[in-house]
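Ticket opened by: R.M.
Priority: normal
Category: complex prediction / small molecule

The reporter submitted a protein together with 6-sulfanyluridine-5'-phosphate and asked that the result be attached to this ticket for the collaborator who will pick it up next week. Submitted input follows.
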Amino acid sequence: MQAQEDFLLKAFELGIIKFGSFTLKSGIESPFYVDLRPLASSPHLLKTLSHHLLQLVDDKALELICGVPYAALPMATTMSLESGIPLIIKRKENKGYGTKKMLEGVYHAGQNCLLVEDVITSGKSLLETIDEVEKETLKVTDIVVVLDREQGGVELLRQKGYRVQTLFTINEVIDILHKYHRLNSDEVQNIKEFLSAAPEEIVVSRKRLEDKDIQHPVGKNMIDIALRKKSNLIVSADVISSIELLNLAKSIGDKIVALKLHSDIITDFSQQMVVELRGIAREKDFLLFEDRKFADIGNTQELQFRQGVYRFADWVDMVTAHPIAGEKSFDVFEPTGVVAIVEMSSAGTLTDNYYVSQALNVATRSDAVFAVVAQRRVPDDLLLFTPGVHIGKKGDNKGQQYNTPQKVFSEYFTDFMIVGRGIYQADNLVETAEEYRKQGWEAYLESI
Ligand code: S5P
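Result attached by the on-call engineer:
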């Protein structure tokens, strides 16, 4: 046990576990965040870890080793070098050309493959991996895992007949860090309370729009409009002339909660157009939403927001801004509502889990922010807007990725969906906007 404790303390120094407030992929707020990838930066620790993992299994029966990408890849490689058991590599995604194989390396049907995983939570992603490996006609009987987050994953896999060995449970990790004064008693209590909550308590159900704790007047207004119109549709009016914009606003205005604009793409933008647009917005009961995606220091953003050609401060209800410059940078927009971009919809975006957590922390701390743009569940005290929604398409050829209204409302618990080309490029604007409104509202009602 001493050897395991020594290993853990050294790994902790590398930063494999962080304490604070983190939003997991599932939308759950967690008081800690585990990332074992930095272990690969210490050859010595990686060797020690691999040695401990090999001791957990009877390696005589095993013919292959496979690490689940990415954190477990270097671990599996090191275990292969130490034990002499050949390594195979599992792809994260099918490369889409060539052999279309999910596994790389030399193997034969029926061989027994040991799976190596860094962290197990619910066990769902490991089951998917097992499925993929078994589809390639290999046999999986044993799995070794570095850390068990104790959310039912180990039990699930054991029920299905797999032998699962774990090096640490999260409670053991917390106890060891406490014993060596890396965590104080309050922190330990907080984390243990989180861990002991039954999974059903952690899986918060979606709140109705009217039950959400939104303080910002613009957010409250949006919710009122949504309930009046039975709509959670924001249309993205990415058209390039004022005539197209005004026509779009007139024809679909009564189906939407807000019209999202990119003012800088309108060739003949003018304050006269703004006056007309505001008239339509008032008559048709929707808000004006400028998607400027500010991303600068507060002073520059203030100038961009209040001065120049657009003078957004005079006429928009809300704007998008990146949290990249920190929470103070949002203050300059008040009383206009701020929608923080914490995650993007496009392929290859830099907004990974760590970025999203940090961005959500910045957004939550600012009184100006009442909503965020993301592709996942977020804490209840923010409204969630999700773009990248299309009924008929999976994406464009410029990186955009689409989901259906059903998916964003049932899986992400989105409050408002943003639809651009799906609507403004349709032959029949009014019918199509009505179809999106209806599908969106029904998907929302079904999700509560
Ligand atoms: O991550 C994002 C954030 C935004 S605001 N992905 C997005 O697509 N958007 C915006 O939503 C984008 O700038 C565009 O105006 C709209 C999506 O348009 P569509 O035509 O792809 O539906």
